[in-house]
Structure formats: C-alpha cells, structure tokens
Fold these 2 entries.
Entry 1:
Amino acid sequence: MALIVHKYGGTSMGSTERIKNVAKRVAKWYDAGHQVVVVPSAMSGETNRLIGLAKEIMAQPDPRELDMIASTGEQVSVGLLAMALLALGKPAVSYAGWQVGIKTDSSFTKARIQSIDDTRIRGDLDEGKIVIVTGFQGVDDEDNIATLGRGGSDTSAVAIAAALKADECLIYTDVDGVYTTDPRVVEDARRMSKITFEEMLEMASLGSKVLQIRSVEFAGNYRVPTRVLSSLTDPLMPLEEEANSGTLISFEEDTNMEQAVISGIAFTRDEAKITVLGVPDRPGVAYHILGPVAEANIEVDMIIQNQSVQGVTDFTFTVSRGEYQKAMGVLEGVKGEIGASSIVGDAKVSKISVVGVGMRSHVGVASKMFQTLADEGINILMISTSEIKISVLIDEKYMELAVRALHKAFELDKE
Amino acid sequence: MALIVHKYGGTSMGSTERIKNVAKRVAKWYDAGHQVVVVPSAMSGETNRLIGLAKEIMAQPDPRELDMIASTGEQVSVGLLAMALLALGKPAVSYAGWQVGIKTDSSFTKARIQSIDDTRIRGDLDEGKIVIVTGFQGVDDEDNIATLGRGGSDTSAVAIAAALKADECLIYTDVDGVYTTDPRVVEDARRMSKITFEEMLEMASLGSKVLQIRSVEFAGNYRVPTRVLSSLTDPLMPLEEEANSGTLISFEEDTNMEQAVISGIAFTRDEAKITVLGVPDRPGVAYHILGPVAEANIEVDMIIQNQSVQGVTDFTFTVSRGEYQKAMGVLEGVKGEIGASSIVGDAKVSKISVVGVGMRSHVGVASKMFQTLADEGINILMISTSEIKISVLIDEKYMELAVRALHKAFELDKE
C-alpha cells in the first residue's frame, strides 16, 4: 500500500463526463489498495470566466476580492469529483484549502504556501476515504482566501504530497510527459522517461509549461517523487502500466544511465528586453534600478551589466512581455534618480535554452550552441549561463527555427 | 447614523451591470453616514447551473458535497460586489460565512443557523468599511460548509441583522413589497405599507414567496425590523423616499391604525393530499403515521383526523406536491404496521388562506369565506384554522377563481 497524490488539470476536469473518467481512474488506484489524495483544478474555462466577470466590474481587480472569486472554481471541482466517486460507491470527501489547514502568505493572486496541517487528511485516509482537496489556494493568518496564481494546483498537489510524505505525486495533464522540446515546434521531439529535478527546474522555468515552476521547487526541496503523465489514456488501463508512464522527476543519482549531455531545449516566446543606458557606475546601481521593478511585483529574468567605460555603464534585463509596459513606466519614474541617460526596450524577443546536467562535465556545449545559431544567421542579443543551462535571447521571429536547429544539433531526436 | 443590513436577490445580482447598480445603492446609504452590511444572493441562474452539474454526476447529489458546490455562487457574488464598491472608491471587504463565524447545524442543504460571531464584521464597520457577507451558508462544528436551502440568503441577512442588533434589515427584491395577494392572480391586489410579523409569517409560509419563512421567524424571534422593497428602482433615488418604500414587517402594537380584519389572501398551488383510511383509533396512531414521513424529511402541513367510528378512523394530511410520490411510498411501506385498510391521495389540490390579525376580534370571517367559495361553486376539501388565518384546500383548477373572489369579498382592493 502506498500513499499517492493525484493532480488533474482543467482539461481533465472539463466536463461532467470527464470528471467521471477521473473518478474511474482514482477508483482504480484506491481499489488496488492505495491511499489516494486528489487535487483537481477548476473545470477548463471556469477560472477565465470568473476573472472575466471581475474585470467587467474592475479593470484592475482588487487582488483579495479576485481571490475570493477565482478560488470558487476549484471548490466546485472537488465537490463534483467527490460525488463522482461516491456514485461509484467509493468513500470520498472534499475539502477547500482552508478546511485542511493550507496556510499561505497574504500575497493575493500570487501567494505562497507556508504550511499544511495534515491532521484532517490523514484521519480521513486512515478511515479508508479518498480525500479531494482544492488546488490553487489556501488562507492567510487572518483567514483570507489567497490563490497561488496560474498553475498553482501543481504546487498544491506537490505541497500536499510533501506534507503527507506521499510515495509519489502524479500530475495528470494533457501531455504525456516532458519532451526534449515542444513537439508543436519540433516534430521529432522525444519524451523523456526520467529527468532530474534540476533539469526539470530549468525546463519548467524556461517555459516548457508542463509544470508550474514553484511545484518543481517544492518537489525538489521536499524530495517528492513527482511524475507527469497523461490524463487522456483509458482510465481503466492496467495500473502497473500507468504507474510507469510519463516522465518521472527523479532525485536519485543514476549512475547506470549514460547521461546525455543535453536533455532538452526550452524556450519562452513572450519576453521583453529593457536597457538602461548611461548609468554612472557606482556601488548600488543594480539595486537602484531593480529595486523599484521588484517593488512593482515584476519578475526579472536575465540580467547583464556591461563593462564600464569612463565611469558609465549600461544595464540590461528581461521581463515577461506582459509586464513590459509596466516596467518601462516604473523606470521612467526613477530615471532621474538613477542618473540614466535613456531607457530603451524591445518587446519582440524570445529566450531559448539548452538544458542538461551532463553539461557540467562536457565542454563545448556553448560553442556548439552559438555555432548552430550562427549557421542559421540568427543574431544573439543576450547570453546567460548556469551550471546546467545556457540561455540566449534572440529576435522572436527566429524562435522556431532556432529550436529546431538546436534540437537537431544536439541529437535530441535520438534515444 | 444607523446600522443597516441590505439583502439583494439573484435577479438584482444577475449581471455585472446590475451589480454595479447594487453598489451605487449601497454607496448611497454609506455616504449618508450609515454603517452597511450587505448580503447578496448568487447571480440568477448560478445556483441552478451548479446543481445541474451536480445532478449530471449524481442523480441524488450527496448533500455535503452539493453544499460544497452550491455555496460558491454566493462567494462569487460577494467578491464582485466588493469590487464594484471599491471601483466607486468605497472601502469594502467580502467574507464567506465561515470567515465571519456563521455557525450552522450539519443538516446539509437545509441547515439552520446556530450562532454568528459578530467580532470581525463589527471591527470592519468600526473601521468605516462596508462589509459584504455570503448569504445561504455557514459551517458546522467540523468546518463543513452547509447551506440553508433555497431562499436562505433572506435568513442569513436577518440573522446577521439580529447578531449586529441592526436598526433595520432591508430585503431588496424584484417585487416592491408584500401585496394583499399575488398581483399576477388578482389585478387590483394592493401593496401593504406595513404588516405584522404574525401576518407575514402566515403569508410567507402560505406561499407568498416574498420572503423565506425562516427569515420571518428569525425576524420575529429577534425583533429585527425588516423591510421588503424593490431593487428595480433608480439606485440614486432619494434615500428618504427609498427608506420608506416597500412593506415594513412591524413589531409595534399600532393602536392608531384602524386594523383591517383581513390583510391578505395567501395561496400555495402545488399541494397534495394523502388520506390513510381505516386506521384503528388508538393512542399513538398519528405518531405511527407521521413519524416515518418526518423521518423521510418530508414536511407535512395541514393535518386532520376524522371522528372515530367503531374504533376505526381516517387520517388526512397535506404535503407539497413534489414530495407526494415519496410520501406515498413511505406510507405503503408502513401500511401493514399501522393497520390501515388503504391509502389514497390527490396531487391536484391547492391551499388558500385568508390572513389577518384583525380576525382575532372579529367573528364571521370563516363563514364569509365559506359562503364566498360556495357562491362560486367551489367545494372545500379540508379546513384548518389558527388565530390569524383560515386555510382551505380546494381542487387546483379553482384556485385563481377562489383567490379573486375572496380578495373582492374582503374588500382588499380598497385602502
């Protein structure tokens, strides 16, 4: 007997028929003797419908009130799924996050889980019940509902799995695993049966979109074995087969496996680049530029500071395209204060990264990447590197071309 | 400065445009210096949509899970209304029932409010905020969400008004007050500017449908001055005029007013009558018949036991038409046990009542009622009386005719 957490996305919960299929799948695991906790998302379209209503009333919805509204989609889902299981004769009970002690901070619409009290869930599991818990939400110290932001149900599932010390967290989604790159861009992209936590973190943060990045961080911090697998298969397929499908995010050093140098190509299409020109190069300049940006709750990704020439430097960073205008506005406001000569930007850029733990012990990955792009006539606008990834910023119109060329150059289409 | 509770029905909350109108109305009261608590219903159609989803999954939805789902409609409403007020620059905050200590019993889908902790609401009011609270719901001792059943938001509003010792509870609805009878049946039905609590109780319980009966009981028990008024008027109409519109449910002995003998004609169309024939007339017979019916959660209304003849009696009672088949089934199951010869029923009957506190000191109301019906050739199937009402059961096909004739006979069209 194992303790398993299942997470189902909005598409899997998209209609009452599909919810019945989810129930059949959950029942299969339960009947095999496992303890099962399920974290379903809102029915597809529902969160958008709710946010749409809010925006009809307030163009910039108040975050606390928006969370009050947006959190209801998951509450409906848990109730429906519990009923679908009860209709199959399985004991099931649903809970909203606040009912099972999921505590968050008060950053409405982008809250972080702080703690989970597992008492109630564990009690129900010990009584033989299937427990269904709302994803995406918890409550702060004053019992205000706070949501975790888009994709937050992944994080909820992994956090609950961590709190319960679950044997595995299964993230059922509409893709059947993590690919070497997006199959919509590269036809012969290949599914990986295993990926390390660190690689997954880079793949997720760089826009592979299979899992919310915070869920991967959670999985890493608490060493929760997490598997991404398809919810589109027959719910009654043999359990053994299902249990080994998809992609496992692994924490074990796998010495047997001949580690590929590069495991995947990740990309983010909607990036924007901002350059602050002619800044006096003195201590604290990065803080004075990025401080106000961070205060405006804008996430900054790549950061480059040029070599100083005659005490003056340029400072370049990227933000997601949706926050470009806001970031430009913030910087215009503090331009005088930081003593910059001007601020320029480009909102039509994309980021591409090659990711792989094997990179650590192999030289030449960077040069191969740059050469491949040069062969295609693609100009590199920015470069940033880490132990297991190299990212470049390029004009967005070359994005697909670059991904396909790199996927081929690193032979990711071959086992 | 007064403390006022507003309640808005689903029609008033039916679209984001209408919600903005509700906000304007609430803001008007707030700007006039009043403390305002608002209890909005779910947007019209929303509760039905949610129950429809549940029924697609489970024909007889599990009550606890149904409440989990159905309660979300109000949660969306409070968030939207709070935003609409914030958009007008008014400080507003929304709460679900559980966040402000609305405690109920565990009778899911038909729970009763047991207590309300006013600390949080009062704190916000004292800080100058408008407080929006979900109607229709609370939580039981184990923090399970429980709803109060259809129309429960009226009860929530009155209960919150009672807990806060509010000066008045204003129930905004799509009718402009309580009428002498249903204006759709009798064209010259007249709006009453005042009605006693007892009369309102009879009018509500007898199907006038303006207010949920439990809300009237609450208003009576806690002496909450409650006013039914229209939400369809211009939200910016003068506050003084609005404050005196509609119908006030009054608790004062009004000696100045020449009390009309009869204040209104109430009716319920969808009744059913069940007769248990040939029951041995011994102690406990009523209990043995009605016990199983009550256990099946079926509400019984009128009850008559015939004069016993040779130790055998007949026992007749009414239930709402929707529960007729269920009640017949229950009785067939215990027929042998109670020793009845047979059980017969009629599901095409309606109940009509004349209501008025003036009846107490006036004789002849009953005879006038019976004579009026006889003049129209309408046969009376059952009679039941109380201090302030006389009810008769008749064939449903005569219902409109009977209501019109009685309205005229008691001169309710005249001031």
Entry 2:
Amino acid sequence: MSFQAPVRDLLFTLKHVVEIGRLSQGGAFAELDEDTLAAVLEAAGQVTTDILAPLNRKGDQAGALYQNGKVTAAPGFADAYKAFAEGGWTSLSADPEFGGQGLPKVLELAVLEMVNAANMAFALCPILTQGAVEAIHAHGSDRQKALYLPNMISGTWTGAMNLTEPQSGSDLGTLTTRAEPDGNGGWLLHGQKIFITWGDHDAAENIVHLVLARLPGAPEGSRGISLFIAPKVLVNEDGSLGQPNALRAGSIEHKLGIHASPTCVMLFEGAKAELIGQPNKGLAHMFTMMNAARLNIGAQGVGIAERAYQQALAFTQERRQGRSPWSHDASAAIFDHPDVRRTLIAMKVRVEAARAICLLTALNADLAASAAEPEIRAAAKLREEVLTPIAKAWSSDIGVEVASMGLQLHGGMGFIEETGAAQHYRDARIAPIYEGTNGIQAIDLAGRKLGLEDGAGIAALIRDVDATVEALNESGDMEFDAIGHRLGHANRAFEAATSWLAERRGGPDALAGATPYLKLVGDVLGGWLLAKGALAASKDAGSVEDRRRRLLAGHYAETLLAQAPGYVASVTAGAEALHALTPEMLG
Amino acid sequence: MSFQAPVRDLLFTLKHVVEIGRLSQGGAFAELDEDTLAAVLEAAGQVTTDILAPLNRKGDQAGALYQNGKVTAAPGFADAYKAFAEGGWTSLSADPEFGGQGLPKVLELAVLEMVNAANMAFALCPILTQGAVEAIHAHGSDRQKALYLPNMISGTWTGAMNLTEPQSGSDLGTLTTRAEPDGNGGWLLHGQKIFITWGDHDAAENIVHLVLARLPGAPEGSRGISLFIAPKVLVNEDGSLGQPNALRAGSIEHKLGIHASPTCVMLFEGAKAELIGQPNKGLAHMFTMMNAARLNIGAQGVGIAERAYQQALAFTQERRQGRSPWSHDASAAIFDHPDVRRTLIAMKVRVEAARAICLLTALNADLAASAAEPEIRAAAKLREEVLTPIAKAWSSDIGVEVASMGLQLHGGMGFIEETGAAQHYRDARIAPIYEGTNGIQAIDLAGRKLGLEDGAGIAALIRDVDATVEALNESGDMEFDAIGHRLGHANRAFEAATSWLAERRGGPDALAGATPYLKLVGDVLGGWLLAKGALAASKDAGSVEDRRRRLLAGHYAETLLAQAPGYVASVTAGAEALHALTPEMLG
C-alpha cells in the first residue's frame, strides 16, 4: 500500500511535545517559524511518497548488484538519489558556508524519519553521507572542508564510514588497517573493512570514504587509531575529479533486509588518503559524531514502525473475517475486532513515543549547539548525551516489535513476501545492531551517561517526569489523574533502578542490569511524552486531537507504564549468578 | 553450526517437570519405562542431527520448486523423508492396528520438537500428515482407515490439510469449495485452496488431501461444511495406485521463511473425493484434531528457540570482542560479557518454560486418552483443553522472541544470511500465525476455555501453582523462598485477571483483554514449571542440574514473574476506548 507522510503527527510532536518553539527563544534558529516547519515537512512528505516509497519493494526484490568489481544501486535508486539531492534534501542542517541550509537538526530528523519510513535502504545513503560531512566539518582543515564539503552537502558526492573489520566490530581498538607514507606527505591505506554501508554504488560521481587506520608506529589499541579521507575518485586541488583511487568493493553481503543498501567489503590496496584531524585521535573524532549517527538509527526504528503501522491499519480496514462483537456484522472488517484494535493502538503508541524521544533528543542537540544562553546549551548537551542511547536502542527495538505486530495483523498474508509486511520485519532488524548494538547503548546509558555530572542528566529527567505527573494530577481530569498515577509509579521505579545502578556503576552488576534499565527508562520517557502531548491537546477540549492523544496516553499508561515497575527486579538482579555460569550449565 | 539434540533437557522435563511417570500408573502406557524413553530420544536425536539439520540451510536457500504444474521438494528433502519414514519416525504415536507404534504423544512431541529444531520446514510434512491421519482415524469408515492409514503412518504417503481459501482464513464459515455428486455415490470437488502446506511435492508416492467443502444444498456458514478425502493419485480398492486425480498445485508462495516447505495454491478441478464422517460436520471433525495440531505448532516455537539458542551460545563462546569485567581479558569471548550472559539465560529460560508447557499439554492429552481412572481422564482432558492455546501461542511467540535475541547476539554477522541466525528469525515468524493466529488462541483461552466447567480448568491450574508456591516456601531454602514469593505474586495476578475476565466472558472487554491475559498466564505457568524443575533437581543438592535449575528458575522469577503483575492493567483495560476509535483518530 502507498505510504502517507505523517506530517500532522510530526508537527504535533514537534510543536506540543518537544516544544520546538524553544529554538525561537534567541540563538541560531530564532527566525524559525511554524510555516517554514510545515512547508518543509509537506515538501519532504511529497518526495518520500512520490519518489522513495514506490522504490522500496522493488529495491528489496532486486537489491544492489555486485559485478566485475563494481556495485550498481538497485534499479531506480541512482535517479532517486539525484532527485533527492536536487530537491535539497541532503543539505537541510548543513553549514550554509558550504552550501547547507542551516536548518535545525530536529527538523532534519523529522524529514529523515519519513525518508526511512518510505525507503529505509535508500535512507542509509544520506545518513552515512551526513556522518562523513559532520566528521570533515568538525575535524577537517579549511582546505579539506572546501574541497569535500560542498559536493557532499549538495549530494553530488556521497560519503561512507569505514570502521568495522572482521575482528573489530564493537571493539574498534583491535583494527589493523594501516597507513603508510606516500612520500609526498600523504598516506597510502592498506587493509580490509567490512559492513561498509553504501561503500560503493553508481548513484553519485564520487564517494568520500572516511577510514579508521593506524599510522606507522602508532600505539596499540584504541589510542593508535587515526582518521583518514580516501575518495573513490581522487580529487584534484581545483575540485575536479582525477584518477580512480586504489580502493574497491570486494563483495557485497547477502543480508536479511535492506537489500537495496549495498553493504560492502572494502579493500584498500594502497589507496591515497589524507589524515583528518589529529594523529591517533581517530576514535575520539568519530565519537564526536556518534550521537547524530545513533539518533539517525533511532529515526529508522520510528520510520519503519510508522510504515508497518500504516500498512496494518489499511489492511485491517479492508480484510473481512469473522463476527465483530460491536457491529455484529458476520463478516466484519478485522479492524472491528477488539484484539485487532488493541494491537493497532499498541503499535501507534509505540510509534508516537519513539518519535517523541528521538525528536526530543534532536531538539536538545540543536539547543546545545545554538541556544543563546550558555546554561541552556549545557543542560541541553547533557540531555542530548543521556537521551541518545535511549533514542537509538529503544526506538530501534520498537521498530522490530511494531513491524512484527504489523506482520501478525496480516495473518497468513503477512508471511507472503509480496504483501510487503515481511520486508519491514526484515529491514527493521538491522537497526538494533548497527551504530553500536543495543546492548552497547544500554551499557553507555547505565555507565558513562548515568555518571555524567554525577547523575545530573538522569536526575533532571526524573524531575521533569514528576512535573508532568503533577500537571496530570492537578488537571482535575479523571483520565489524566489515572495516567498521572501510573506515570508516577513508573517514575519511582525509574528512580529506584537508577539509584541501585549508580552505586554499582561500571561493575558487573550494573552491566548485567543495563538492558532492562534502558527498557524501563524508555518506557517511562515514552509515557511521559505521550502524557505531555495529551495535556497539550486537551486545551482544545473535545477535538479529534484531544481524543486521540488521550487514548494514546491512556493505553500506554495501562500497558507499558503499568508494566514498568516490574523491570526493577531485572535491573537489580545483579551479576553473581551470571558470573557463576559455565558453558556446562548452559549447554 | 551443528545442531545438538537436547536429549538431556528433554528427559529432565519429561521425568521431573511434567512427570511422565504418571503414564505408568495403569492405563495404556503402563509399560513405558525410562530406558525406552531415553532410547527413543537418543535415536531421534541422531536422525535430527545427522539427516535433518544439515539440510536446513540448503532448504532455505534452494526452497521448494514449482515447475510445469508440479512441486519438487528442496534438494535432499525427498531422500530425507524416506529415511525419516523408514526409521519409524512417522508412526510413533499412531494406532498399532494400522502399523503405528502406539507410543505416547508426549514422547512424540519431544521427538517433534527436535525435528522442528533441526529443520522446521521439513517438520511440517510429518506434522500435516499426522493431522490427516488423526482425522481419518477419528472420523473415517473402516474401509477408509484400512485404505489410507497404513501407507500414511508408514510414511509411504503424506497428508495435507486443505482448509483456507482466499476469503476464508480465520473464519472458515465463508468457504466456497463445493462437492458435486459423481453419479457413483462419490463426489467431485471444485474450488481453490490457499496456504496448503506440503500440498504438492515429490517426496512420497501419494498425497492424501483432506478438504473442507460444501455439499449441494448445504446450509450457509459453518454448519454447511463437510470433510472429504481426495488423494493426489486415486487409490484402487486393493490399495494400489490408479490414475492421477483432477487436483494440482497452481503455484507456490514466495514466503518470508520455511522456504523448503511448499505452501501451495491447490486447484480442485472436479477431483474425485469421498466424504469422511458426517455431512455438514466437517468443521467439527476438524476441531477434534485441532488440539494436536496447535500443540505441534507450539513445539515448533520451542524447537526454533532451542536451535537459535544453541547457535548463539556457540557463537558467543567463539567471538572475541572487548574487555570482560570478570576476566579483564582485553579481548574476551563475548560470552564473558554480563549483558551477553543475561541474554543467553533469558533465551534459555524461555526455551525451558515453553518446552515444559508443551510437554505438559501433551502428557495431559495422553492421560485424557489412556488413563485407567475416568476422573483422571476427565481432569486431564480439561487441562489439555486449557493448556492448548497457551502452548500454541505462548511458545510460538517465544520462538520469535528467542530467534530475535539469538540474531542480536551475533551482532552484524546476525544480519548476514550465511550465518544462519536470520533464517531462524524468518522461519519462526510463521508459527504465531498458522493453526489459528495467536490472537485467536487468546480469545479461545479467555473465552471458551475459561468457561469450561465454570472455570474449573483455570482454577485447578491456579491451585497447582499455589501448591508449588507452598513447596518453595516450605523448602527452607532462601533462593526457593524468593522464587516462591515472586511466583505467588504472579499467581495472584493470574487469579485477579481471571476473575475479571470470567465476569465479562464473550463480551468486547474480555476480547480486548485476551492477548495480554494469555501472555500473563503463559508467564506464570512457565515460572511454575521451572520452579517445579528446580525443586526436583534440588534433591541432588549441589549437582550441576541443581545449580542449572536454580539459576533458570531464579532468573525467570526475577524477570518474567516479576513483570507478570504488570499485565493485569492491560487485561482489565476494557474495550470502551477501543470501541470509540475511528480511523480518523488512528490515521
């Protein structure tokens, strides 16, 4: 079925839940107005529905092609990328000095969610390019920025991130790709990288590879890694294209999903490269753009969940089967069965909660970078840091869960590939894995992020949730009171789990409790943001939006929030029993 | 990686958790001894590891083939089926009068779990054949039994169940395939069936189709459906094969998983058929074998979860990445990371709980059919009825969940098809859908099953759980006391949810709460059975089994049991808000 850009819901969350208006209170985005916001989303919605969504199934079926040492994008994808770039969609948040539009990241993320919903495999090309742009923008020399950024931001060239090696996945400290001096002050890269997303393709004139590798004599481990630029086609100093570089795709992977996104083995065979940033600081340089990359994956979870939800909603209104207890129609649309509606609502609340968490993270990234007052910038930076692993992991898990629910609502048709529901279930499954597995996100949250400023970031979240609990309780509205009750309980669980973990931070007990902790925190924050939305919508009492938002917040409270306290036992179970495990006991 | 038949764990659960010894207390299986049990499981384990498991990945890649109107099984599958049949694995529980071995269903289910683990697509062929055998055994005439059963039980012929039509999935009352008199007292079938598992193939000499269709002038709806036998090749009265029948596969589906199981569109073009059982009682006849069929799907969930668990366990012991907080090894096996061990345990407890629920259901089916005392038979029948939807739905959901966890533990490799983890994730996804979607199972549990004998079946389960709580509390063992505490709490939640539903049985509120109710009940029963296992193993204090079973029951209590009370709010949320929903509010 066709994809409908969820512009109304995105605007609601931007305005009323994450309060994008905060960007207008001075700082770099003071001039952003609601009309611009709506116009950008509408236009993006059109591109995603008209150009990207129709290619999604075709791309899944045909996939990217590897032949004679070169990768060809799936049919139609190269043209779509050109149209996407020409529409300005690769340059939304980029620096105007290099041709970017200088719009907030939160708006870009809203657009990216739709791009992911329309065509997740396609979306990875601009996502990876953006990562490369940010790396060069943050750490490149003026010459490097001038040479590479304009073409990458305009979409004439794309970017790829070359980190993983066969023995180096979650732990990049063991990577072995090496740089040798070329005798002219540059470097020649030798090594093999795997899982390189859009590492080769024919959709753009050039591909700018950012590559982690070791300089000669560099220290072992993570402190001896440097970051390099190695373009597929060498770039002359006047910006024109020169000779092909000594790098190539060795193969592409046969994957569960995102078939149209070529996942390449990249071979660097003495490829000319230039160092970017400081020697041996490559990992640190990569980390500066990690938040944005992780947040983008969260948006993939939201996007695929939204797409799966839309498809299931349409199917359940068409498919007729069995008698409804409401209509007593002997062959009712399955939408009229309570269990089906329950499932649809369960999907929708997850989409809305994950969307709100991701957009809130992006808004804080914008505030951190651009707010007029330094206190606001600092608080926003802390919040961005804390929310990022939640946005990535919770939302990508939601993507898998909602895609699975959507498939289930199709009954037997869901298991047939041509229906399309199965593709979402397959595509969604990568998001919990890449850009740091969700287990690593959880460890980041329960470890480093919980420790930032002595736990101030988490404490501030707990306070903000309590403020919403208070607003719910004081609303004089019985439904809101019930939601406030559940949210308050869940928030106490959040608080208790946090205290327990904070005392054990970095130790095995905290590591063992990290994943259920992230789940608990995400569940609470999702409920908080849905409740905020319901409170905002209630100002227009009796409106469709008021009824919608009440229903969503109420269902979420009765399900995920009611279940949240039950996770404290998992969080606080400790690692002793796990430590005592032997393979003999498990086999 | 290679599949290891989980014979030790199956034997433990059979002996100590579901107490298979109860079958020896008189009745048809009085002579079953532990040595026979172990010998059958060991032999089955060998067939599954040596013959079926090696074909699993190949079958996924090649799939069944449809060409020139005929279906060819995936390469190697026809030979494997012959070997499987020759080994006697198609006849375990079948009636000795027709060549069966007359063994208990609980033993057969344990074998079938391993078959599913080794090769889920293959397993469907004997599963569907067994359904057809049971239908003919229960409802066929003596002539029909003599003509069809021996060859089906020996595996010379297979069986297929032809129920679904494009407009008739969950609601078979709308099916339109019709039977016309052939002028000789027989019938000619006209119509199209879809989703017919192993509906055509070349792995056996003949395929005996059981087909639901309407007699001329039959009442509309579900009361006008009759059951027919229509073999692929007509069978002469002396049992020899005659002419091909006028039925054929029109195509096979391109599916998400179980590629080696041909899912056929079957075209009946005046196919000769004989009525089986009573006219217009076809649906009722099918329902008599529904319990067994649903339980078999539960065993698919267990099997695929076991396979995914084994693969993840092996991978995590090989893959080295990052520093372990225990060993401080800078490049530790990921098995030494707390979050990875937590995930492995989470997988293992789900496998063991689902295994126990399925085997307990099968044991009750055996007792219901064979126990010496009528009271035991009646109580066992009631328990079988109540447990069947839980065994089917809870276990098949577990299959999907555990397969997803297993894929995640592989990191990026999990998303690459050649690793094999992705196949489990794809294959597992069908089990919550077929043989009655899990939503339908939940409605069956919260509706008809809860109502049986005024709720006596559920009440007996709650009492039995409480008896285990008491045993845990009285054990004088602190760990067991803690488990008992959680199990008791969870059981009170089970009780409260049951009472609420019982008052609303059949109404929209109960229908809306059915799915979270089934989840809650399955979670409680899984914890109960794991606790029973731990109590039994503790008799050999300090043994590996004692430590294993404590660990499993303890982890389950801290996670699923601790979370169980949180589901009461979902169960009791009611349907009012759902009823008020409009597509406008959801879109």
